[in-house]
Design a protein that fits this description.
The N and C termini lie far apart (55 Å). A seven-stranded mixed beta sheet has the order 2-3-4-1-5-6-8, sandwiched between helices. A two-stranded antiparallel ribbon has the order 7-9. It has twelve helices and nine strands. It is an alpha/beta fold. The structure holds guanosine-5'-diphosphate and magnesium ion. The site of magnesium ion has 3 residues, from helix 1.
Length: 282
């Protein structure tokens, strides 16, 4: 029987564990990731005659390497290559929650979005154009209320189907523009990383972005991987010095700004409506 593996990701308190429990019921197992204290929860569910394994990843706001949780989440996705990542978002704080989703999209792993806490969002007058959001990002999007189970099974079905349709394709990373100071360096670094097959279990552009973000774990892995590491570090230093002297800022901040800019552009054009705004207009 074909087994589909799904990693549940999302910001802390977005409702991952609630969704996980709704899906797996008693069929779950709690263990540990080797060497650290972060819980590893796994569950199984039967769906339309197939077996789906679900891993409840620790909650994270980002995929940098600042916390054990972030490292666990990204290592799991890169090393274990789940068929799909289901990102559970708090719909009442969609913009902030999409920051993590965008990073999974940049990694290229197939992602399905669960817009959770829709009961709360509705109470606040928030309406989301799910079809438009799905079209813009190119991934399945489903509204859910994990606490009551609304939409959770449908989210799982969407995710499994999406995983199937993407299973024979290589990961296709989303490419965001990071502006005139960073894009050329990013392109050059990506080309070098690709041609050297450097850290090639990660997508090349993603490695380059992590370097520019000053990701210490990536740089540590890079130094073990070969001499290209020093060249990349030098390129990053050059762009960092330039940003410091011209804009008094640093690469990581620019990357975050452009990511939020990308999210804002996605949410513009009617993806999110506030009912009070709508009635104001009438
Ligand atoms: P996690 O940190 O992502 O695993 O989040 P939890 O599953 O632990 O949920 C955090 C809190 O949000 C709990 O109190 C849940 O009962 C609540 N919660 C989860 N899903 C929903 C939802 O769809 N609507 C509402 N109103 N609360 C929810
Ligand atoms: Mg949890």
């Amino acid at each position: 029987m074909k087994i589909t593996t799904i990693a549940l990701a999302g910001n802390p308190n977005s409702g991952k564990t609630t969704a996980f429990n709704a899906l797996t019921g008693a069929r779950q197992h709690v263990g540990n990731y080797p060497g650290i204290t972060v819980d590893k929860k796994e569950g199984r569910v039967r769906l339309d005659g197939r077996e789906v394994h679900i891993i409840d990843l620790p909650g994270t706001y980002s995929l940098t390497a600042y916390t054990q949780e972030e490292l666990v989440a990204r290592s799991y996705v890169v090393d274990e290559r789940p068929d799909v990542v289901v990102d559970v978002l708090n719909s009442a704080a969609l913009e902030r929650n999409l920051y993590l989703a965008v990073q999974f999209l940049e990694m290229g792993v197939p992602v399905a979005l669960g817009l959770n806490m829709m009961d709360e969002a509705r109470k606040q007058g928030i309406e989301i154009d799910v079809a438009r959001l799905s079209r813009t990002l190119g991934v399945p999007v489903r509204e859910t209320v994990a606490r009551s189970g609304e939409g959770v099974k449908e989210l799982l079905q969407d995710a499994v189907e999406f995983g199937d349709s993407r299973s024979k394709q290589p990961w296709t990373p989303l490419e965001i523009s990071y502006g005139a100071d960073i894009d050329p360096v990013l392109r050059a670094m990506t080309a070098r990383i690709e041609s050297e097959k450097f850290l090639d279990k990660y997508p090349a552009r993603w490695v380059a972005i992590k370097y520019i973000e000053g990701d210490e774990e990536m740089m540590r892995l890079g130094r073990d991987a070969g001499p290209l590491a020093l060249e990349l570090e030098a390129q990053v230093k050059e762009v960092a010095d330039h940003l410091q002297s011209t804009l008094n800022t640093y690469p990581e901040a620019v990357i975050a700004d452009y990511r939020y800019g990308f999210i804002a552009s996605v949410l513009r054009d009617g993806v999110v409506k506030r009912r009070d705004e709508m009635t104001d207009r009438i």
